[in-house]
Amino acid sequence: MLRLKEIDVYYGNIQAIWEVSLKVEEGELISIVGSNGAGKSTILRTISGLIKPKRGSIEFNGKRIDPFSPDEIVRLGVSMVPEGRELFPRMSVHENLELGAAYIGEAYQQTDQSLSWVYTLFPVLRERSGQLSGTLSGGEQQMVAIGRALMSRPKILMLDEPSLGLAPLMVVEVFRTLVQINQEKVTILLVEQNVRHSLRMAYRAYVLENGRIVMEGPGRELLDNKHVKEAYLGL
């Protein structure tokens, strides 16, 4: 479904990503783990078209997409939940959600069905639908951000640090919902510093260090890996 082939990414003259290759198959839940500053978010931003790779290629469903603009990539079915959520705080929950489908033809036609789906996944958002998003708790805002991305009816959902800044109980709830979304046939690519949770739920995972993939394999196998335990789990 998604293929990155030996991409190099720069910020000005500073190289951030070195020869990264990875794949995500339809229906999978894939995690990219690593320390802060390893380049995880850069990979998602590059897939989304916000950054252009200097070398290599990105393919989605057999079509090369790295030359495309971000809006073209979203219309192909690639949606991202950004780090920090980036909601419109003076707009209601309902209005933020509707924006996720507003400019995508087929998704716009399914707005009512999509809203019903999101409210089923996150019942508290139905109760808060008229509330300004800026007045919600951090966990509720993250629910809105995930819901907004789902409104575009993505073929692949990418999430950048969805547990960041959340209380432990809310972290568990967010990850539980991601598993449910994946079970409902949405492919997921997850970038996350919470290594234990993300590896436990991942079909496969990649370990990124200093802009390079140093390890890959089934999530639970990596969870038992000596290097992963020492470097990321404090064991």
List the helices and strands and how they pair.
Elements: E1 2-11, E2 14-24, E3 29-33, H1 40-47, E4 55-60, E5 63-64, H2 70-76, E6 78-81, H3 93-99, H4 105-109, H5 111-121, H6 123-127, H7 138-150, E7 156-160, H8 168-183, E8 187-192, H9 195-201, E9 204-209, E10 212-218, H10 219-223, H11 226-232
Parallel strand pairs: 3-8, 3-9, 6-7, 7-8
Antiparallel strand pairs: 1-2, 1-4, 4-5, 9-10
Account of the 3D structure:
By secondary structure, this protein is an alpha/beta fold. It has 2 domains: 1-77 and 156-235, Rossmann fold (3-Layer(aba) Sandwich), CATH 3.40.50.300; 85-154, no CATH class. Helices cover 39% and strands 26% of the residues. It has helices at 40-47, 70-76, 93-99, 105-109, 111-121, 123-127, 138-150, 168-183, 195-201, 219-223, 226-232; strands at residues 2-11, 14-24, 29-33, 55-60, 63-64, 78-81, 156-160, 187-192, 204-209, 212-218. A hairpin with a 2-residue loop joins strand 4 (55-60) and strand 5. The mean pLDDT is 93.
